[in-house]
C-alpha cells in the first residue's frame, strides 16, 4: 500500500526518488512553501494597493514601484514551488537542503520598491 | 485496534507539526479567498464581464484549496495515529501485552507517506494567476 501510495503521488520528479523522510520535515517544508505563497500574495496586494490608492505619489514612480512589487509577487510562487520540490527531493535523498535562489532578488525588489515610494513622496 | 482514549487524545507530535501545517494552509487559503473576492470587485471594470468568470473561478478554487487542505490534515492525522498504533501494538506505555512486537517499517511512525505535491502545485498556480491578474489591474489594460 505504501509503495503504491508513493507511486501515485505528484510530482514523480520528487516522489520517484529516495526514501520517505521524517514526516515532520515534509510538513516543515510545506509550511515554508505556504509562507512563500503568502509572501507572494502580500507583494501583489501591496502593488495593487499602491496603484489603487494613489496616495499622492509622483505617478511614474508609483507605477514603477507597483510593477516591481507585482513582478516580485509573480516570481514568489515560482520560488515557492521550485523550492518545495527541490527541498523535498533533498530530504528524500538525505542530502543538504538547497538554498532559495530567488530570496535575494525578491529582497532587493522590495527594497527598490521602498526607495521608489520614498522618491515618489519626496518628488510629489 | 487497541487505540485507547489516551492515544486518541494525545497528539502524534508534541510539536504539533500537522496542526501548525493545517493552520498555515488555512491562512494561505483564506488569503487567496480574500484576494479573489477583491478581484471580483476590481477586475470587471477593466476586463468586462469575463472578469466575473475569472474572479469567480478564483473564489471557487480558493475555497477548494481550503477544503482540500482540511481533508489533507484529516488524512495526515489519521495515517500518523494509525502508524503509531501499528508501531507499538500495545497502545500507550501501559500493558506489556504485545509491546515491542511491531517492527519493520511501521515501527517508525514518522516515516509515513502522507502528503503529496498536487495541492501545493495548484496553490502556487493560483497565486501566480493572482499575480498576473494584478499586473493587468496595475497596467489598467482595457
Describe this structure in words.
The complex is a heterodimer of chains A (124) and B (142). Chain A has 124 residues and is mostly helical. Chain A has helices at 2-8, 12-15, 23-53, 59-93, 103-122. Chain A is elongated, with a radius of gyration of 19 Å. The N and C termini of chain A lie far apart (65 Å). The mean pLDDT of chain A is 92. With 142 residues, chain B is mainly alpha-helical. Chain B is 67% helix and 0% strand. Chain B is built from 5 helices and no strands. In chain B, helix 2 runs antiparallel to helix 4 (50-87), helix 2 (17-42) runs parallel beside helix 5 and helix 4 (50-87) packs antiparallel against helix 5 (118-139). Chain B is elongated and about 60 Å long. Chain A binds chain B through residues 2, 5-6, 8-11, 14-15, 19-24, 26-28, 30-31, 33-35, 37-38, 40-41, 44-45, 47-48, 51-52, 63, 66-67, 70-71, 73-74, 76-78, 80-81, 84-85, 88, and chain B through 13, 15, 17-18, 20-21, 24-25, 27-28, 31-32, 35, 38, 42, 76, 80, 105, 110-118, 120-121, 123-125, 127-128, 130-132, 134-135, 137-139.
Which helices and strands, and how do they pair?
The complex is a heterodimer of chains A (124) and B (142).
Chain A: H1 2-8, H2 12-15, H3 23-53, H4 59-93, H5 103-122
Chain B: H1 5-9, H2 17-42, H3 44-47, H4 50-87, H5 118-139
Helix pairs in contact in B: 2-4, 2-5, 4-5
Keywords:
heterodimer, A: 124 residues, mainly alpha, 5 helices, 78% helix, 0% strand, B: 142 residues, elongated
Amino acid at each position: 500500500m505504501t509503495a503504491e501510495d508513493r507511486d501515485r503521488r505528484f510530482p514523480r520528479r520528487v516522489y520517484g526518488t529516495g526514501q520517505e523522510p521524517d514526516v515532520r520535515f515534509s510538513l516543515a517544508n510545506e509550511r515554508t512553501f505556504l509562507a512563500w505563497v503568502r509572501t507572494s500574495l502580500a507583494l501583489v496586494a501591496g502593488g495593487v494597493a499602491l496603484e489603487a490608492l494613489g496616495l499622492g505619489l509622483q505617478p511614474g514612480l508609483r507605477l514603477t514601484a507597483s510593477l516591481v512589487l507585482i513582478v516580485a509577487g509573480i516570481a514568489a510562487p515560482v520560488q515557492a514551488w521550485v523550492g518545495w520540490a527541490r527541498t523535498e527531493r533533498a530530504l528524500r535523498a538525505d542530502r543538504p537542503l538547497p538554498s532559495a535562489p530567488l530570496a535575494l532578488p525578491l529582497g532587493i525588489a522590495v527594497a527598490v520598491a521602498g526607495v521608489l515610494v520614498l522618491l515618489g513622496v519626496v518628488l510629489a | 485496534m487497541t487505540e485507547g482514549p489516551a492515544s486518541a487524545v494525545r497528539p502524534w507530535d508534541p510539536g504539533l507539526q500537522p496542526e501548525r501545517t493545517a493552520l498555515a494552509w488555512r491562512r494561505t487559503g483564506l488569503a487567496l479567498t480574500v484576494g479573489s473576492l477583491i478581484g471580483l470587485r476590481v477586475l470587471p471594470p477593466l476586463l468586462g464581464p469575463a472578469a466575473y468568470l475569472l474572479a469567480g473561478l478564483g473564489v471557487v478554487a480558493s475555497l477548494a484549496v481550503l477544503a482540500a487542505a482540511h481533508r489533507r490534515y484529516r488524512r495526515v492525522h489519521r495515517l500518523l495515529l494509525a502508524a503509531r498504533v501499528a508501531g507499538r501494538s500495545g497502545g500507550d506505555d501501559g500493558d506489556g501485552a504485545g509491546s515491542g512486537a511491531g517492527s519493520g517499517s511501521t515501527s517508525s511512525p514518522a516515516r509515513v507517506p502522507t502528503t503529496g505535491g498536487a495541492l501545493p502545485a495548484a496553490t502556487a498556480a493560483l497565486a501566480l494567476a493572482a499575480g498576473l491578474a494584478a499586473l493587468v489591474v496595475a497596467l489598467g489594460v482595457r
